[in-house]
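Troubleshooting: if your tokenizer reports a length mismatch, compare your output against this known-good record of 145 residues.
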Amino acid sequence: MHLAELGIATLTSCFVNSNRDPKSEAAKPSDFFYFTPTEDEGERISSAAANAFFALADAGKLPGWVVAIAPVDKLAKSRNSDPCNPLLWGGEGLVLLMPVVDNGLVRFPLGFVDGVSGEVATDGGVVKLPELGQAWVLDGEFAIS
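Known-good structure output:
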């Protein structure tokens, strides 16, 4: 739900800023987020996943929909200068960063799903997804066949 509120939060901040005292501080869209989890909620993204995300984004290897739903602020906080050789599994509506196959499951530190469910063919195999909608997933695991 927090991704859906970005548009109205942006419009609200524009309205507030157009009517504010010029000497006061400008409102930001994030001031009007009500469904976004607070910073202390949730898990921290691993630095390896953050490094892989930025390496792939810089190389132009990530689809636009992934960049649009990615938690870029959290990724930037987790990023470090360690060298990275990122691994990515991609399929129609599915991107998994640094996946590892173990006992019929694919585990990954960061993944992105765009409105797909059921079996999705990736370059690493067929991943069975539950119905997730458009989401990013931390420390996820899905069945693989």
